[in-house]
Amino acid sequence: GLQHLHENKTIHRDIKGNNILLTTEGGVKLVDFGVSAQLTSTRLRRNTSVGTPFWMAPEVIACEQQLDSSYDARCDAWSLGITAIELGDGDPPLADLHPMRALFKIPRNPPPTLQQPELWSPEFNDFINKCLTKDYEKRPTVSSLLQHDFIKQIEGKENVLQRQLMEFIDVHQQMGVTEKARFERIHTKKGNYSKSLVSNQEEVDDLATLEVLDENTVTEQLQKGYAKDQIYTYVGDILIAVNPFRNIDIYSSQHSKRYIGAERTANPPHIFAVADIGYQSMVTYNSDQCIVISGESGAGKTQSAHLLVQQLTVLGKANNRTLQEKILQVNNLVEAFGNAGTIINDNSSRFGKYLEMKFTCGGTVVGAQISEYLLEKSRVVHQAVGEKNFHIFYYIYAGLAEKKKLAHYKLPEYRPPRYLQNDHFRIVQDFMNNSFYKSQFELIEQCFKVIGFTLEELGSVYSVLAAILNVGNIEFSAVVSEHMVDKSNISNPVALENCASLLCIQADELQEALTSHCVVTRGETIIRPNTVEKATDVRDAMAKALYGRLFSWIVNRINTLLKPDKHLSGNDDGLNIGILDIFGFENFKKNSFEQLCINIANEQIQFYFNQHVFAWEQNEYLYEGVDARVIEYEDNRPLLDMFLQKPMGLLSLLDEESRFPQATDQTLVEKFEDNLKSKYFWRPKRVDLTFGIYHYAGKVLYNASGFLAKNRDTLPADIVLLLRSSENNLTRQLVTHPLTKTG
């Protein structure tokens, strides 16, 4: 049968016992050509890693990671040899291992043999040895194997063997043996392969197995599962998670154990299964892995990231429990500083986070590192109606009030600080007496302690946070000048004194830095007064800079404290599993610079998904000669080009306009309109600062007010120099060290 396939330029690629059938007349049939490859020449090769793990040839497995690897029809000869062992021993070699571990072992182990070779003829043993030659260039072809003594000895005995088979089948049926054949899942380069499609009326774990897949079917299937608290569903190697907005008991230690090293089909779809697949792939292929979490704001991305870290620490079995506890506390800490309540999500991530867990080559977790992106610093000084500031401000207010330390950090006990005044909180008691905030403050203090921050560092962090709130309370009034020059003066010196005290700087120098600025002209330094508007901008810029740099300092400190210990990780470079948790697509009543950045990032992730699900898959069909219907999808590459290309992309134009001192947000929008000749850009009115973008998730109207200032993100040099003179070590560090994506 194999010779016939090979002569007709076809590789079977899934030879195993389950695909060899016996008829009642003693006939032998080779079946299941679902993953076979059609060649244009008998000498051509393939480089797609596909097959059932225990029977896959080493060269086929190598194609998973090595792009320059390939194989020819002799891979079927290897599978034939494994099937021969299966017939002799009842199981293929390594059958007791997880399939992913088997894929790791096969290329590294010597060729397998029968468990008890002495029970079998020398010819049968030699036939298996020939089939299992590891160097496939030296492995015999199927035509050569037909000339082997083991095969030649049956010439002229075909009828006798057929009668013996019929007798064996008859006895087998009379004995009523009903042993169920083992189901082995086919492995492919992008996950697992399902051969049979099911009716749309049935409930399925994997939507890719449905006969018809459209929006109505997907919605119906997700609703059926959701009604039964099955919030997870697969689509091939992608997991869909539907936020239940309540606690469901599916994350216990028992559930965790159930998914460790288990076949994907052995349990219902789960986030723990994704963690296990990532971990097993890392260890098996000795290759870094990445898990990308994407979805709308409020979809549950942050909680999914929590659960992935939780399961990966279990799989990684840290040598000391302290390290495991540290890693588990990281998310809680950075979310307190980087998350806030929005109109649609009480715990919305206002920054992008890439958490990289570090492992030894043996799979033991030894550390972690965070990279942070696009922190929404403007939220510190202004929140939209119905929204809140970052969580940490409310936590420390409630926690310090409970500890009777508000006065120590110069925080008012009656009227909320300006930066915390909104519809939610009109009096300080609204968050001072909030039991949830108090409990979160205790949790955050515990996080700092477990991760390894010192008490001195913790006190300095509280001082900077309190200073930011006091900065916001500084008010300015106009001063009438005899030279008719607009000047400003601080009208509430108490807030100024409080801020200076907390930052360990001189109050008079802070006042000067806020109400005036230096200009150097022809070598001469001229001090010019700031207007009330300019002084207010400097005040807010100082608050945003302090918070942004404090957040980066905390991230950097975490990375230092969780850096892998060389004694634990050894001399090897180790392996990584990255988890990308980035804010979801946003479309509010008023969309500003932050929403544009967030949505561009989501466009990039959408492009990756399009490539993964559609483009790469259809290229594989084309390469394999599969006559599949071309699936049409919305390719957002032209939109990304409009944003990212140089020098005429939207972001390049924004950077260019930001370099012109006389540029305004109005000139920026006009520049966009003049240069962005794209169907994805439109401008509804030419008299205001709005412009629109047709995103993959729908059209969004942006208001360009503040775009240039936010993109420049400058802090006056006078403020920087003043903070560098601070007597507080942390305050100095915040404006001394350069920032990187990891803090």
Automatic annotation (TrEMBL):
Domain Protein kinase: 1-151
Domain Myosin motor intervals: 202-743
Parts of the chain that traverse the membrane: none
InterPro entries to which the protein is assigned, alphabetical: Kinase-like_dom_sf, Kinesin_motor_dom_sf, Myosin-III_kinase_activity, Myosin_head_motor_dom-like, P-loop_NTPase, Prot_kinase_dom
Domain of life: Eukaryota
Any Pfam family hit: Myosin_head
Binding site for ATP: G295, E296, S297, G298, A299, G300, K301, T302
SMART domains on file: MYSc, S_TKc
Main location: other
GO MF entries: actin binding; ATP binding; microfilament motor activity; protein serine/threonine kinase activity
Subcellular location(s) of the protein: Cell projection; Cytoplasm, Cytoskeleton
GO terms classed as biological process: positive regulation of filopodium assembly; regulation of actin filament length; sensory perception of sound
Keywords tagged on the record: Actin-binding, ATP-binding, Cell projection, Cytoplasm, Cytoskeleton, Motor protein, Myosin, Nucleotide-binding, Repeat
GO cellular component: filopodium tip; myosin complex; photoreceptor inner segment; stereocilium tip
Family: Belongs to the TRAFAC class myosin-kinesin ATPase superfamily. Myosin family.
Protein name per Swiss-Prot or TrEMBL: MYO3A protein
